[in-house]
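Quick one: structure for this chain?
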Amino acid sequence: MSVEARERRQPWILLSPALGAVALLLLLPLVFIVVYSFWLRSAVGPDTVGFHLDNWQRALTDPFYRYILLNTLKIAAITTVLCAILGYPAAYFVARSKGNKVILLLLLMLPFWISYIIRTMSWINILGSSGALNTALMTLGIISEPFRMLYNEGAVILGLVHFLLPFMVLNVFVSLDGIDTSFEDAACSLGATRWQAFTQVTLPLSLPGLAAGGLLCFVLAAGSYVTPVVLGGPRDAMFANLVYEAIITQLNWPMGSALSLLLLFVLGGLVALYNRFLGLSQLTRGLG
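Got it. Here's what it folds into:
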């Protein structure tokens, strides 16, 4: 074998363990899910093997599934907007701080050291009827009886923002940290105010990071299962809850597979649009 051939093969040899793990842990299960989605659940005995479109027809035409999907996308969109509004000022503060960026980033990463489930369930002790917030409001005489703040859409959005806000801050920080501050100084020296320099120079240059954080928050929020189960009510189920209900509760693997693939295709389409106009390089920078 020639030296050039060995050099061409070397990267693939080095990547083979990672590619094998991806194929075994991601692609192979996905193939099984695709196959299952065309089977039919049997009332008794094993599922009916074959190529049937009943599950897909039901998933695409049933108004109930369409309503839950649209509601999931709405909650994810609201969560993403709130994360952007709250996360951008925090990321700007961290990026423009002098001498203490490492400490601030460490504080930003602290929530990741605590289990996502524990962080979500902590809101029960804050928003519950006998939680800290209701107790404080009743002690101050603002309300006479506990205010219902749990098990509704607002609580689900609050829990998702709490979970996803660090992802938004990190992505925007990466984008802002790469912008030379002399650009703003140059704009100010040409007669622009600090606000004009920010809106016309810094903000446009940081939009790729904001878009990357928005994509990440939207996808994670739309696929969330724990938050709506813990903080939401029966009417606040999201699409991932339907997948769990179909597979675990009803033992309807074919229908659950079709629903999970439907959600995957919708979110995958959004990722494809993002990659078409902005590229995934900024997203990988934020994750790194």
